[in-house]
Write a structure and sequence with these properties.
The structure is a single chain. With 522 residues, the chain is α+β, with helices and mostly antiparallel strands. The chain has a five-stranded antiparallel sheet with strand order 2-8-9-7-6. Strands 1-3 form a two-stranded antiparallel ribbon. Strands 4-5 form a two-stranded antiparallel ribbon. The chain folds into three domains: 7-196, no CATH class; 200-358, no CATH class; 364-453, no CATH class. The chain is 39% helix and 13% strand. The structure holds adenosine monophosphate and magnesium ion. Residues 272-273, 282 line the site of magnesium ion.
């Protein structure tokens, strides 16, 4: 029987109301609430790596006891389940109290002195469920489960996923909010992270003038997760909060640089979906760019303003950090240091982005002129429909010979027959400049290729691949989930046995629901 501890509930402030009904909660960090008993829980998949991380013994599967815990059917020893209270800005507007509407935290397991929180998503309603039912459907749970693990293996900071369970209950959803509700298979994902604390957890206390709670939560976060920032004296000062905010800005910028590197579009970068640890969190209508289109967003709810489109992600991260700064301001009572840090964000981001782009192009250093090389390439990729992943992966084969460009790039185009003369001219110019730049490179050709191949993934959890796995899982066959999990374990490796998965989005997926368009309904 696993033994949990309860860092969050032990050190922070509980809601005094213990009944589980939907309400506005005041003066609390969290509310106690229990998962709903699932009708017929069934383990569909689990991540061996996360089980190992948690030191869970799995000879060839999770034990029956663990399966019951991960379905919300049984509580582990000392597990005191709770939902967190937080607020947020949604699509730029203040939304007030949000909170864990369908996530229930089970508590921590402590591994190598590091607390790791386990959280069930889709295990039933909480006081924060607002108009929702607290449940989740299979399609969105498969997407969250697979992408959490895929992102981790891509080397991108993310919450993890231990398990995917079917609950045995059906859940009704109107997928496109167009008056066509349907019964879908209910599912539960167990997410794992140091904590699930978001920007919005701080925002709620600032908004409702709960300054004691704001300080309590900030000190809790720093003591447990940013202890390296605490001065020798052991006391947290205004200076500590400032350094902490700076660390959050850097972690967030680093995460976004990774997203841009692989073409990940989160889709719902609301402040309640921003982890205080700089982890990718809350996989909803996310997607990966197939053809490189800076204006693309997978989220149909955002189709008009495209606030959360690929190219806008760094700006939104900055905007969200401004909101976090406003929330923690009462701890510091001085705008200047917060403004200074925020003002440094664009340059810090730009520097990291340039380093990342240099690696994508196999360059060991960044020089003055490289900025235009990088930006011109992005323009070029958007000029003709070009598959981002395939283009960069094939680019590693470019050895400076301009006559090889045609054959190198061919497989990346969605319409290879209709490349315009303007495009071909721009492409020649770019490759000419790149070829010249490569001559300044001080690493060997082999080192260059290795650098590119560990920066540019060969395999990506493309939307259409997930959709194929979801359609099969909906019909009772989870084998494709296992195949994708396996491929995405080594996204930078050649894996010739999975060569078929190194392909552009097929035409059938161009406008299909779940492939290029996703709603928030999940
Ligand atoms: P999201 O857009 O998924 O980040 O969700 C925004 C807010 O809505 C969070 O507070 C969620 O917990 C809540 N929420 C989303 N879906 C549901 C649901 N099915 N039941 C209850 N709350 C939900
Ligand atoms: Mg969320």
């Amino acid at each position: 029987m696993p033994v949990f501890s309860d860092l969050f509930t032990k050190e922070l402030t509980a809601d005094t109301e213990s009944e589980n009904f939907i309400r506005q909660v005041s003066a609390a960090n969290f509310s106690y609430c229990h998962p709903v008993q699932p009708k017929a829980p069934k383990l569909l998949s689990y991540s061996k790596e996360v089980a190992d991380l948690l030191q869970i013994n799995t000879s060839n599967s999770l034990s029956a006891e663990w399966q019951a815990i991960l379905a919300g059917a049984k509580l582990a020893e000392n597990s005191i389940p709770f939902a967190m209270r937080y607020a947020g800005h949604q699509f730029g507007n203040w939304a007030g109290q949000l909170g864990d509407g369908r996530a229930i935290n089970l508590g921590n397991l402590v591994v190598n002195n590091q607390p790791l929180e386990l959280q069930l998503k889709g295990a039933g309603p909480t006081p924060y469920s607002r108009a929702g039912d607290g449940f989740a459907v299979l399609r969105s749970s498969v997407r969250e489960y697979l992408c959490s693990e895929a992102m981790h293996h891509l080397g991108i900071p993310t919450t993890r996923a231990l398990s995917l369970m079917a609950s045995g209950d059906s859940v009704t959803r109107d997928m496109f909010y167009d008056g066509h509700p349907e019964k879908e298979i209910g599912a539960i994902v167990c997410r794992v992270a140091p904590s699930f604390i978001r920007f919005g957890n701080f925002q709620i206390h600032a908004a409702y003038q709960e300054l004691d709670l704001l300080k309590q939560l900030a000190d809790f976060t720093i003591r447990n997760y940013f202890s390296h920032l605490i001065p020798q004296s052991g006391s947290i000062t205004k200076e500590t909060y400032i350094t902490w905010f700076s660390a959050i800005c850097h972690n967030t910028a680093d995460m976004i640089v990774h997203w841009q590197r692989v073409g990940f579009v989160h889709g719902v970068m609301n402040t309640d979906n921003m982890s205080i640890h700089g982890l990718t969190i809350d996989y909803g209508p996310y997607g990966f760019l197939d053809n490189f289109d800076p204006d693309w967003t997978p989220n149909t709810t955002d189709a008009q303003g495209k606030r959360y489109r690929y190219a806008n992600q760094p700006y939104i991260a900055h905007w969200n950090l401004v909101k976090l700064a406003e929330a923690i301001y009462p701890l510091i009572e001085d705008t200047k240091p917060l403004e200074d840090i925020l003002n440094q964000f664009p340059q810090y981001y730009e520097d990291q982005w340039q380093n990342m782009m240099a690696h994508k192009l196999g360059l060991d250093t960044v020089s003055e002129q490289d900025s235009s090389l990088f930006k011109d390439l992005e323009k070029l990729l958007a000029m003709a429909e070009t598959d981002m992943t395939i283009f960069y992966r094939e680019l590693a084969k470019f050895d400076g010979q301009l006559d090889s460009v045609n054959s190198l790039t061919e497989s990346a185009y969605y319409n290879p027959q209709s490349l315009s003369n303007d495009y071909l001219k721009a492409r020649n110019q770019w490759f000419f400049a790149y070829s010249a730049r490569l001559q300044q490179n001080s690493i060997t050709e082999a080192e260059k290729i290795a650098l590119m191949n560990r920066t540019n993934p060969k395999y990506l959890l493309r939307n259409f691949l997930s959709q194929v796995a979801i359609d099969k899982a909906d019909a009772g066959d989870c084998s494709e989930i296992e195949i994708l999990l396996e491929i995405m374990r080594n996204p930078y490796a050649e894996q010739p046995q999975y060569q078929d998965y190194y392909q552009k989005r097929p035409e059938w997926a161009r406008h299909k629901a779940g492939c290029s368009m996703l709603s928030c309904s999940s």
